[in-house]
Sequence to fold (154 residues):
Amino acid sequence: MYPLLVNGLHALLQGLPKGVHEAAVSFFGLRPADHGLARRLEQQLRAAELRREEEAMAVEKERLLIEQMRVEAEERHINRAASLVAQYIFRYKLRQGFYRKWQWRLRQGAAGLLQRLHRGRVGRRIAKGLRLLRQRFLSLSPYALKIQKNVRVR
Fold:
């Protein structure tokens, strides 16, 4: 038989769960503590329950994260929709403002519009008369030159 090393047994005992073995006789056999098997099974059961709880917590955390992401996406969608509605209302009011100004100008500026139309009509009539006078003058100018020549010669 090989000599028993204290460091090796100590490391072996530390690797086992507490309370399962009370002493190491040799590398080939450990003297089990009273109810060691029951304690070991109890510890394994506790470890399995802890694993299940951790897994359940991880699943719940993932579910909460997904729910939070869904809520944020929904809020972004609602905010985007509200922003679009606000833009439509703003543009509608802007159009209505221009329309009201145009209506006001039509109501208030009717006299000015009538005056402007009348002056334009009268101005065009006068311009037409002047244009006809000038055309008549240009059409008669050759005869006027002939008359002037005849008058000067005599």
About this structure: Residues 1-6 have pLDDT under 50 and may be disordered. The two ends are 171 Å apart (CA to CA).
